[in-house]
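Handout, tutorial session.
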Amino acid sequence: MDLSQAQFKIWFLSIRPKTLPAAAGPVLIGTALAYGDRPIHIGIFLATILAALLIQIGTNLSNDYFDYVKGVDTKERTGPVRATQAGLVSPAAMMRASVGIFGLAAVLGLYLISRGGWPIMVIGILSILSGILYTAGPLPLGYVGLGELFVLLFFGPVAVGGTYYLQTHSINPIVIIAGLAPGLISTAILAVNNLRDRRTDKAAGKKTLVVRLGRKFGVFEYIACVVTASLIPVVLCWITKGHYGSLVSVFALYTAWKSIYAVYLKGDDAPTCNQVLEDTGKFLILFSVLFSAGWVL
């Protein structure tokens, strides 16, 4: 492997591609919800999903940097390699990359603001700020037990609602309820991450909910989020008295049983959690695709 290939691999792993379904899933769902109200603008859809992915990548790079400088990522880390902590990328280079990616997201945001107005500007600014403040600042969201709330909102109703608003210039309770599904699954992903890192987070003073409330809470949180998210389509069909095709997404829960069982048995075992993280990301994208397809059919 030559230098350029090695560098590409380092940066590719740094963006944490397994987390990207958390950004793409809500955009698919929001677009599907809008499809029944008016024709979908493909340009807006593509810009929305790309901006969401860029914000997620920028957040991942920012977290890589700030977790290192705050001393949370150490050689005792049990998760995937973090490039800054491992010495593969300098802190300055990681920060520049994060700023650059957020900058690209902001450029796309200008186009989206031109189509959606000030509500989209507010969502965009808050999304980028929250991504940075998740690990930055004197009271990082992820360090004081607010990570779950941030993830539930911004990877759920905010992302789905913002996508829907861009296409329709309106919002309604159905969209907000639907947004809870991807938000809950993303929260489950965070729960597993925090279960895996519970001991090192505690040693570093990072007070996630799992650190504060213990392993049993983290296991319950994961299972409750996955199961509740899978029941959202049932609630929506009951409210709307239609869109029964979306119930096909409930069957995605079948693919999550292995992860639920693994978390129940070995909720803080690092290899187990790493596999569950990957599988839950796949569950999120499968759920999003099935729900979206079923809703519009």
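The second record follows below. Compare its token runs with those of the first.
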Amino acid sequence: VGDNVGVGCMVDSCQHCSACKQGLEQYCEVGMVGTYNGTDLHDGTPTYGGYSEKIVVSDKFVLNVPEGLDLKGAAPLLCAGITMFSPLRHWNVGPDSKVAIVGLGGLGHMGLKLAKAMGADVTLFSRTPGKEEDARRLGADHVVISTDDKQMEDVKGQFDLIIDTVPNFHDLKPYIPTLALNGTIVLVGFLGELDEALNSVPLIMGRKSVAGSVIGGIPETQEMLDFCGEHGIVSDIEMIDIQNINDAYERMIKSDVKYRFVIDMASLKN
């Protein structure tokens, strides 16, 4: 009683399949139940947890938020935070790793913070200049403009792991040559068909991989929260009243937020 707890992007899974038994409930073979816009496994009703003031949820999907973390900044850790933490952990990022993050948004800014705290040498890939100061504040050691051929040539063969956070269709080909031997580029932002032909030769000749990842299981999400508690990591956020949710959505579409909106649930009573 009295603990600060959080509920992330999922509230249930079958608990019996291979993925669930490994603590990877987000890959449940039956299908994880989303906190919002999901389908309850027991009665088939929709889940409406997104903007709820209260929620009833299985204790298996409730996470402890470490003392000392600002609750406003901790809220996006349960989505953006774990989305970035999971691939960093899965691909064993540490002090000897060279990691690049594609895109500086809600996901990307968390990737910079987490990778830096793990001891990696961290690079931000951005299509346009002007983000260097913020990127370095968030943990980037280097900033590379991906539309600059010279800068891309200079980082050829460097990165053990690239996490691509871009949420819309884009060309992956410029990033493949920047992977080191055995390097992997992980897609976490774009859901859809990669229409552009991807030449397999650079992948085969360097044993390079293209992979995907989505949030994290409950054990890993708790590990992420504990890690953030130890390192004092939270999201950069802007608080809004729920009455301004439509304006916030329009601003989000325009990338006019640094770097996550958080709703003040007390404003429900206004």
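Points raised in discussion: The radius of gyration is 19 Å.
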